[in-house]
TrEMBL record:
Gene name of the encoded protein: atp6v1f
Single Gene Ontology BP annotation: retina development in camera-type eye
Family classification: Belongs to the V-ATPase F subunit family.
Organism lineage: Eukaryota, Metazoa, Chordata, Craniata, Vertebrata
Protein name: V-type proton ATPase subunit F
Keywords from the UniProt entry: Hydrogen ion transport, Ion transport, Transport
Gene3D superfamilies: ATPase, V1 complex, subunit F (3.40.50.10580)
Organism: Sander lucioperca (Pike-perch)
Length: 119
């Protein structure tokens, strides 16, 4: 990876993954593992969690994008990740709007500050 940047990984529904793949994020690592997972109706929660943990362990991934409704399925694993890299960003999907109250990074950021800090 010398001289190369880190990858963006995506865990999302078909529309989300297709959009990012058309944007050029699709890569295979040296073990022929992709940097994305298309979550369908028959995709198990165990498979989603296993893929998420494998993305965390990969040194070539710098950002993990995950649809928020999928993140809710593995919330315990996402909340357990406290390192800054790879960054885990929850994004909306076509069928499920973004809810800031559910976003783990936003909750952590709010916990770092209180209203008195801004006075």
């Amino acid at each position: 990876m010398a001289g190369r940047g880190k990858l963006i990984a995506v865990i999302g529904d078909e529309d989300t993954c297709t959009g990012f793949l058309l944007g050029g994020i699709g890569e295979l690592n040296k073990n022929r593992k992709p940097n994305f997972l298309v979550v369908e109706k028959d995709t198990s929660i165990a498979e989603i969690e296993e893929t998420f943990k494998s993305f965390l362990a990969r040194s070539d991934i710098g950002i993990i994008l995950i649809n928020q409704f999928i993140a809710e399925m593995i919330r315990h694993a996402i909340d357990g990740h406290v390192q800054s890299i790879p960054a885990v960003l929850e994004i909306p999907s076509k069928e499920h709007p973004y809810d800031a109250a559910k976003d783990s990074i936003l909750r952590r950021a709010k916990g770092m500050f209180c209203a008195e800090d801004f006075r």
